[in-house]
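Example record

One chain of 150 residues, shown exactly as stored in the release files.
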Amino acid sequence: MVRRIGRERRYSERTIAAYVHWIRRFVIDFGRRHPRELGPEHVREFLSALTVAPSTHNQALAALTFLYVGVLRAAFERMPGVSPARSQRRVPTVLSQREIGRLVEHLDGVARLAVLVTYGSGLRVRECLTLRVKDIDLDRRESILLIYSR
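Predicted structure tokens for this chain:
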């Protein structure tokens, strides 16, 4: 059911797999009880016992929110009393144009093309690796992926 609804909502397979993982772990932690028998207090307990990075904590919360709101259609919109973990803002490390040029000098073939496309278009690595010819509008010099992400 989780997988089906995730696909209907066009979640990526990686997101669905992560959600299934966290839902399974939640159910197992509470003695394999059905989630309908568990509520927000159990979610709070589960999340507070996790010793993971804030982003992982938030992924688990998103999975359980999806379970209760999207799949089980629970009466609440969000998890009452459960809030996302806060992480410190990180400033990304960015290579200079000179450093990118030096990197590209040492590449050839598909690796060189992937780096140039990723750098030049702003695509994520997975988006670049799954890019198809039909995803590119050569007349407008745009990728369909970039159009949808705006």
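Notes: The longest strand covers residues 136-137.
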